[in-house]
Design a protein that fits this description.
Blueprint: H1 5-10, E1 13-16, E2 19-22, H2 26-38, E3 44-49, H3 51-59, H4 61-68, E4 71-74, H5 77-87, H6 97-107, E5 113-118, H7 121-134, E6 139-144, H8 154-163, E7 167-171, H9 176-184, E8 192-195, H10 199-204, H11 212-216, H12 220-227, H13 229-257
């Protein structure tokens, strides 16, 4: 599951804790994924890196290895802070999955068969119906909820074999979803596989989106914390300071390794910000 080799050489990437993250405008990212879905063969696993996932990556080597075999897109203001401190520049666009996937579905004019895997049965059905209303020229197929045996996924894989999908959306939470995809999904199952986290909760209407003003200020995380403090306090109240500490520690380790010299990466010129 590797991205197009030609594109990999040309697309700028900024490393976060050593993990290359694609630095693309919205138009560039939408065009890229649309082309991947149009290829007659091959497969690409696309996932999104945010501050929480980056913290996990530092302590989970197998998760880091999976990300190294994937196309990783930047999600959230935390990645901008980290990239500014580590690379001297922030990402040109916030390509969070909650906004990027619906935009991609609209961007793709060629009808596609798109499978959904994960969530509770109720959320899965509601998300499938929501996506079908959002982009009715595509065909959305609920493959399975997320309550299946992750060690023996033969029934789910058989269902995927039967559906002949173009795109598979997997929403089972990080790092479970990325590891499961990397271990189980083959090229015959779908050309593009996207690990989408909590996207189905939003698409189903179970969790409301933040008001547009908060989203424009990139404060949806604060709105989510306000809605679900018991479930998310550890991720945000504890996770954000830990992430900033990890960024500072990584910056100091890079500086020490370079003998005090800048290690800012060089990459091709980019287009304007989205």
């Amino acid at each position: 599951m590797n991205p197009s080799p030609t594109f990999s050489l040309l697309a700028p990437r900024l490393p976060i804790f050593g993990c290359p993250v694609y630095d693309l405008t919205w138009d560039g990212a939408l065009s890229f994924v649309n082309e991947l879905a149009s290829l007659p063969m091959g497969q690409t696993h696309i996932t999104f890196l945010n501050a929480n996932n980056a913290n996990i990556m530092l302590s989970d080597r197998s998760f880091r290895d999976v990300l190294g075999r994937s196309v990783v897109l930047p999600d959230g203001v935390g990645l901008d802070i980290a990239s500014h401190m580590l690379n001297g520049e922030k990402f040109v666009a916030n390509l969070n999955g909650t906004d990027f996937v619906p935009a991609l579905l609209t961007y793709m004019v060629t009808p596609r068969r798109i499978g959904l895997l994960g969530g509770s049965p109720e959320v899965l059905d509601a998300a499938t119906a929501g996506f079908q209303r959002h982009a009715p020229w595509h065909r959305f197929v609920p493959i399975s909820d997320g309550f299946f045996d992750k060690e023996d996924s033969s029934e789910v894989l058989a269902a995927l074999d039967a559906e002949k999908l173009d795109i598979l959306l997997v929403g089972m939470g990080t790092p479970l979803q990325e590891k499961w995809v990397d271990r189980n999904i083959q090229t015959r199952h779908a050309r593009v596989v996207m690990s989408v986290g909590a996207l189905f909760d939003f698409a189903s209407g179970r969790v409301p989106r933040a008001p547009s003003v908060l989203r424009s200020l990139r404060l949806e995380w604060a709105y989510r914390l306000w809605l679900e403090p018991e479930r998310l306090w550890r991720r945000y109240v504890l996770g954000i300071p830990v992430f900033l500490y990890n960024v500072l520690r990584y910056k100091l380790s890079e500086r020490n390794a370079a003998g005090g010299k800048s290690t800012r990466p060089q990459h091709p010129a980019r287009g304007g910000k989205a």
